[in-house]
């Protein structure tokens, strides 16, 4: 009898794990998806920028925070995207010291 109960509990455990991974336990609103339009907060092509020479130890984020007096008015992802748009073929993660880059100015 003990083996039967343990076997049933093991089967129940695996079934519930399978069900959770395959179907999920949280309800979804797949049929009633709401479409939300988000305003594009990335500046247009005539965006203002400031050319700054990167000093050793500085990152894109530290320079943007310095330009904007401490905090960015946009998300980090938007700031990185705008930096990479202004500096074609340059990743925000691979800026080099003593080179000049364009840094976006946000309102």
Written description of the protein model:
It is a single chain. The protein has 107 residues and is of the alpha+beta class. It has a domain at 49-104: Membrane-bound Lytic Murein Transglycosylase D, Chain A (Roll). The chain is 37% helix and 9% strand. The chain has helices at residues 2-22, 60-67, 76-86; strands at residues 49-53, 100-104. The protein has a two-stranded antiparallel sheet with strand order 1-2.
State the main characteristics:
2 strands, 107 residues, 9% strand, rod-shaped, alpha+beta, Membrane-bound Lytic Murein Transglycosylase D, Chain A, two-stranded antiparallel ribbon
What is this structure's SSE topology?
Elements: H1 2-22, E1 49-53, H2 60-67, H3 76-86, E2 100-104
Antiparallel strand pairs: 1-2
Quick description:
The protein is α+β, with helices and mostly antiparallel strands. The chain has helices spanning 2-22, 60-67, 76-86; strands spanning 49-53, 100-104.
């Amino acid at each position: 009898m003990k083996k039967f109960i343990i076997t049933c509990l093991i089967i129940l455990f695996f079934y519930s794990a399978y069900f959770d991974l395959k179907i999920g336990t949280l309800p979804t609103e797949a049929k009633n998806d709401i479409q939300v339009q988000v305003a594009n907060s990335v500046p247009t092509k005539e965006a203002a920028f400031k050319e700054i020479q990167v000093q050793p130890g500085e990152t894109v984020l530290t320079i943007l925070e310095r330009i904007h007096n401490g905090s960015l008015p946009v998300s980090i992802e938007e700031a990185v995207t705008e930096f990479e748009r202004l500096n074609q073929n340059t990743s925000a993660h691979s800026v080099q010291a003593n080179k000049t880059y364009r840094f976006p100015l946000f309102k």
